[in-house]
């Protein structure tokens, strides 16, 4: 019986170990690849490999495929951009790989850089074909020289740059899909705009806009006669013929990225499922070289990791159809640089506002209508300034389009609307504090709160999505602020409304900033709050204390009036707490509110200044506990003071101490000076407030904690398995070991 027990123990341990190994193998990533580089079978979770971009121009790139190896194939170049946002003259830094390029951008330089890239390709591939594509958000959130012309100047520039194929982004819906299609097709305006727009030439752009996953709710058809895909037939000078297919994809996040009225008539179908569907259709037509133009985000970080929604979509595509024939995925939406290979799919994104472009070169085998194995190479290059690349010519035709647009809108945008207190721009979301505050954003919500009061609507607070604050507020050297500068900050013309919200709903809205890795966050006016860490990877921070501008705690059951835009009212950026709130009244357009605020403050002798950014206060758990303890001590001491208020002798013996409260500079609102209350972070180190209302006198460790959320949430250690698997392995191994030792011991005794 004892011998059998040892055997059973050994068998049980072996079985448990086998179960673990089988479970582990079921989770393993397996990819089987055919000779032409296509994944065809297996439990597919494709590998993600980042592609390095070290060169600044195609001419200096050394890893292009050798044309001599593909003499029987057809050379094809895809030049792509994303998220132009009407940036006709927008410049800025572009970080690609390990390098940062300054003064990158403008459409005239973009055109010149694209032409230079195409010329380099043609020099090595005389029979080659170049196709220029875009991945959405060409329009919307635009500077005045595009926005005042309904972005028609941008579409004219794209046409002059010979872009052939594009897809829809969320900003193509900013004024409704009918208006965007009117612009694409060159139709006359359907309503009255400013004089500059009404006189602007309304010309068909010639760009094929494709979308596969936006369909009418009424009949399931793609709206406005758009097609889900486009097949381009390529004929070479030496008689070869090949075909390449393009599939257009919109982000399924559209409902939280635009106004309800703009998307309510449409369904946005799952990206991966839609790609798989039309990939199969194209293959049945004999088209195996397939490019996806998708307005879905991705990023390659400084450590060389590539991740994002686009990566997940490609992985889902492999799960749906391991035999898919997608070769290239041109991404957009997240405004970041990316270059990677997911499975066998090249994945790229060229930052935004024309600061970079995609350059992908490959060779299509005319016998298979697919890219030859290992021939496709992808890169992202900066749009180099004239100073950095004087040999690259600025496109004169595109320059003329921009100059014409500037001349048409100049009387509007150059009009002075107010003055700043000092010279120097008031900075926006590219210059956030660690708590996600920025001066331009807080100036915007201060103006919205003021606008509500100006029209006689009761409003306690104002909140806006930071994504709607599009630029720094530019201040001229004479401290003047122009209409165009203010419009660039608030370009959408969203409608402001005052809505009723309970304190609990407001806290819910504030907490919704801290999911999705703080991708979406708010700027607030009329209140300030404290937040701290919590043990939830999906929402690592939580709001714990909220106060109004009079330093009164928010009552969770009380109803307050909050100014928000109609984008947030529809749950935009995932802020569902604002949906369904009762409308108290309409304020007007956010663009007008901001412009009028600047004018009114200036006329009142209060030139515009950057607000003190102290509306979001981060405390570590330890700091918060100390604060709560000090507050409780203060309450007890205050209570004792009340009991002893008639006893002067007891008061003189130390019973008159005041309650201990945090020290923060309260937000400055229109017409009111900043208020100050005190804050003790640790008993031995007290924070004080300087003359400019900034927290000072913290120890270095406390200063870091005060300004930077818990580092544990920023650098989580990687996990190589789950606890259940490890426990199962240990149990099986232990049982096997116990059984083995028992058998050895018995053999020794017998001997």
Automatic annotation (TrEMBL):
InterPro entries reported for this sequence: 5'-Nucleotdase_C, 5'-Nucleotdase_C_sf, 5'-Nucleotdase_CS, 5_nucleotidase/apyrase, Calcineurin-like_PHP, LPXTG_anchor, Metallo-depent_PP-like
Pfam families: 5_nucleotid_C (PF02872), Metallophos (PF00149)
Keywords for this protein: Cell wall, Hydrolase, Nucleotide-binding, Peptidoglycan-anchor, Secreted, Signal
Segments of skewed composition (Low complexity): 657-667
Signal peptide start-end: 1-28
Taxonomic superkingdom: Bacteria
The name this protein goes by in its record: 5'-nucleotidase C-terminal domain-containing protein
């Amino acid at each position: 019986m004892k011998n059998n027990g040892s055997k059973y123990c050994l068998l049980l341990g072996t079985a448990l170990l086998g179960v673990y190994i089988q479970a582990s193998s079921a989770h393993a990533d397996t990819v089987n690849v055919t000779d032409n580089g296509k994944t065809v079978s297996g439990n597919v979770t494709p590998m993600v490999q980042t592609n390095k971009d070290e060169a600044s121009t195609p001419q200096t790139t050394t890893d292009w495929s050798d044309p001599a190896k593909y003499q029987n194939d057809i050379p094809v170049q895809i030049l792509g951009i994303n998220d132009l946002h009407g940036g006709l003259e927008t410049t800025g830094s572009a970080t690609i790989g390990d390098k940062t390029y300054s003064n990158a951008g403008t459409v005239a330089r973009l055109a010149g850089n694209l032409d230079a890239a195409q010329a380099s390709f043609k020099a090595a591939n005389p029979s080659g074909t170049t196709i220029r594509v875009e991945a959405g958000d060409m329009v919307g959130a635009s500077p005045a020289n595009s926005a005042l012309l309904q972005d028609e100047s941008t579409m004219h520039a794209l046409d002059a740059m010979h872009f052939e194929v594009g897809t829809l982004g969320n900003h193509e819906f900013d004024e409704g899909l009918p208006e965007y299609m009117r612009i694409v097709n060159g139709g006359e305006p359907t309503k009255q705009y400013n004089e500059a727009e009404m006189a602007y030439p309304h010309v068909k752009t010639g760009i094929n806009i494709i979308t596969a996953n936006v369909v009418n709710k009424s009949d399931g058809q793609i709206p406005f006669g758009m097609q889900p895909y486009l097949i381009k037939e390529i004929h070479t000078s030496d008689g070869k013929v090949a075909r390449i297919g393009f599939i257009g994809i919109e982000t399924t996040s559209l409902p939280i990225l635009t106004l309800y009225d703009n998307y309510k008539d449409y369904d946005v179908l799952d990206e991966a499922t839609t790609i798989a569907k039309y990939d199969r259709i194209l293959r049945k037509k004999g088209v195996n070289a397939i490019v996806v133009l998708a307005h879905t985000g991705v990023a390659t970080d400084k450590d060389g990791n590539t991740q994002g929604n686009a990566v997940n979509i490609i992985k889902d595509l492999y799960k749906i159809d391991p035999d898919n024939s997608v070769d290239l995925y041109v991404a957009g939406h997240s405004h970041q640089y990316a270059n990677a290979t997911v499975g066998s799919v090249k994945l790229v994104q060229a930052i935004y506002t024309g600061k970079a472009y995609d350059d992908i070169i490959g060779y299509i085998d005319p016998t298979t209508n697919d890219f030859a194995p290992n021939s496709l190479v992808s890169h992202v290059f900066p749009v180099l300034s004239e100073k950095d690349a004087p040999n690259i010519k600025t496109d004169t035709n595109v320059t003329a389009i921009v100059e014409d647009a500037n001349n048409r809108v100049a009387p509007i945008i150059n009009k002075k609307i107010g003055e700043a207190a000092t010279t120097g721009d008031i900075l926006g979301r590219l210059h956030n504090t660690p708590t996600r505050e920025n001066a331009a954003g807080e100036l915007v919500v201060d103006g919205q709160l003021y606008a509500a009061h100006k029209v006689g609507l009761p409003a306690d607070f104002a909140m806006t999505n930071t994504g709607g604050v599009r630029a720094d507020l530019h201040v001229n050297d004479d401290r003047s602020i122009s209409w165009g500068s203010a419009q660039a900050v608030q370009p959408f013309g969203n409608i402001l409304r005052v809505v009723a919200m309970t304190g609990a709903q407001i806290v819910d809205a504030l907490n919704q900033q801290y999911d999705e890795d703080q991708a979406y966050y708010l700027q607030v006016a009329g209140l300030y709050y404290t937040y701290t860490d919590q043990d939830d990877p999906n929402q690592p921070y939580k709001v714990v204390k909220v106060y109004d501008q009079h330093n009164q705690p928010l009552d969770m059951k009380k109803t307050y009036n909050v100014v928000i835009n109609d984008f947030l009212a529809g749950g935009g950026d995932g802020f569902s707490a604002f949906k369904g709130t009762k409308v108290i009244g309409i304020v007007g357009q956010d663009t007008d509110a901001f412009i009028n605020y600047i004018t009114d403050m200036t006329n009142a002798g209060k030139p515009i200044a950057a607000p003190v950014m102290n509306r979001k206060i981060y405390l570590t758990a330890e700091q918060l506990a100390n604060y709560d303890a000090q507050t409780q001590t203060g309450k007890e001491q205050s209570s004792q003071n009340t009991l002893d208020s008639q006893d002067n002798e007891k008061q003189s013996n130390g019973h008159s101490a005041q309650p201990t409260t945090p020290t923060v500079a309260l937000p400055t609102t229109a017409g009111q000076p900043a208020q100050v209350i005190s804050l003790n972070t640790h008993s031995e180190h007290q924070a004080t407030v300087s003359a400019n209302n900034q927290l000072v006198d913290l120890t270095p460790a406390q200063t870091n904690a005060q300004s930077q959320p818990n580092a544990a949430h920023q650098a989580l250690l990687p996990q190589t398995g789950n606890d259940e698997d490890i426990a199962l392995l240990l149990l099986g191994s232990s049982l096997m070991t116990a059984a083995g030792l028992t058998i050895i011991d018995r053999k020794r005794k017998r001997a």
